[in-house]
Amino acid sequence: MTTIRLTAAQAMMRWLSVQMTPEGERFIEGVWAIFGHGNVAGIGEALHAHRDVLPTWRGHNEQTMAHTAIAYAKTHKRRRAMAVTTSIGPGALNLVTAAALAHVNRLPVLFIPGDVFTSRAPDPVLQQIEDFDDGTVSANDCFRPVVRYFDRITRPEHLLSALPRAFRVMHDPANCGPVCLAFCQDTQAMAWDYPVEFFEPTVWHIRRPEPDRRELEAAVAAIRAAKKPLIVTGGGVIYSGAEATLRDFAVKHNIPMVETQSGKGAVDWEEQLHFGSPGVTGTGCGNKLAAEADLVIGVGTRFQDFTTGSWTVFSAPNRKLLSINIHGYDAAKRGAQSLVGDAKICLEKIAAALGTHRFADPDFAARKDWFRTTDALLAAPTANTLPTDAQVIGAVQRNTGKQSVVMCAAGTMPGALHVLWRAAQGGYHMEYGFSCMGYEVAGALGIKMAAPEKDVVCMVGDGSYMMANSELATAVMMGVPFTVVLTDNRGYGCIGRLQTSTGSAPFNNLLDDSYHVNPANIDFAAHAGSMGANVVKVGSIADLEAEMQKAKSATIPTVIVIDTDPIPGTGAGGTWWDVAVPEVSDRPQVNAARENYEQNTARQWLGN
């Protein structure tokens, strides 16, 4: 056996550089790194040596580096990914939130945090967590519940098994998610004689599991027996590459569709069988169909509470649930009739079995009425008032096209975009599985790196921008252009509205309702400009539209700041959401909200 002597860190980077997609590209496109004493000498030296075959990028925050990597993987439909390395201690723990985000969204990312000395000779080292009852614990054990695979590299030869295991998880269509290879810092520097064949290029494929014959026959029978079926499109459709298959299936059998946040953009909004979204952020026409459907066909969806209106929106008597999902865990939720398998293959097989079976036309008039209603909400204001979020969305919509991607993550904008944005196929990117504030700017960078031909527009509120914005400086440094539309409503407007809707007094959400000695006066334009971005603060919707056009030719990020009204919601669509209201309060508004809450919880379908 021919061997080559390498340090463990050198071996890892050499191996990563030759793991390929079927299209001949690296699966791990590159490594985001912030160095510290736990990874600079071992991993840092190895990355430098492999910089021509495995790029290294420097970020400004460990969590947002990971957000960039996650957005990159999501844009590539899980077929490519990035790695992130940090030192041990706070650097590693800054990744945990992002790991949970990737876990919830079923997205691949490779975390390589430094770890303690296996020798324990210098213990306790700087930043080391000491467990008084367990000598094997380190800070990286925090990753265990939020990754799909965890391993600690304490010997150089561990890489021979740990790396392939990690990649199998990231390529598993059902169990796909983040992995953590905690890399002990002395192990990184240890040398070992690795087999040369370990570094031969490997092509990784994603399986397409076929459904069980009995489950398939039962699913076909359930659809044939339905009178008013409704398809709920989830993110699994996109990850399966089943967008065209789903559209053809719906058209062939005349079945209307609604879409989750993760599934939005699988089918172009102009398709007449596309009725928008269901649930809490649902369209009027979509929720009408949801209330009437006798068979709800979920395709690649987890049936999250926003989709289901906390299980009140699919309310027809005796309605049934059919869940087509790659994972049995998701397919069996709420007692659904399960069809476990790849979305594309399942739809193709159901279509073949149904033959020419077609259903009666859905309410196309309601769909037309919805778009007429929302046209007015999206129009520019006629009075000299602060614009609403809907009016800002309308301005952005009028200045984007089929090659645009609008993205967001948390606050007011996700709900408003879900119900109002008219997404072209592939034109929508929302992190709403974890709804992590601070994902937006870093996520926009990841999307643009994955799809440089796209016009990427990041919609972010002032609250989320304040959470994490430092990768704006990274994007400037790297010359990666995208447009940030920063809506300033002076605080957490979304939660402020939720607070008052549950009867509570305005408190601690908007800046003016929070404890302060000096009123907040944050100059977002100056802040973004200090990081080198193109910046402008606009005073009207018309000015916003003009600056959107200018930003398209920029070679670095452009930030457009606009003040907005924090009070109005979208003004259309939606349904109830289960947010518990206190049973006892001195406030009559809370007591009235509690009464309404109890009426709505009585409508919930608990299932199993």
UniProtKB/TrEMBL annotation:
**Residue span(s) of domain Thiamine pyrophosphate enzyme TPP-binding:** 411-562
EC?
3.7.1.22
Residues annotated as domain Thiamine pyrophosphate enzyme central = 216-349
Is Phosphoprotein among the key words of this record? no
In the record, biological process GO terms are: inositol catabolic process; isoleucine biosynthetic process; L-valine biosynthetic process
- The top EC class is hydrolase
Keywords of the record: Hydrolase, Thiamine pyrophosphate, Transferase
* Record-annotated Thiamine pyrophosphate enzyme N-terminal TPP-binding domain positions: 43-128
UniProt keyword Cell wall biogenesis/degradation present: no
Instruction: Give the UniProt family note.
Output: Belongs to the TPP enzyme family.
Q: What is this protein called?
A: 3D-(3,5/4)-trihydroxycyclohexane-1,2-dione acylhydrolase (Decyclizing)
Q: Which organism is it from?
A: Fuscibacter oryzae
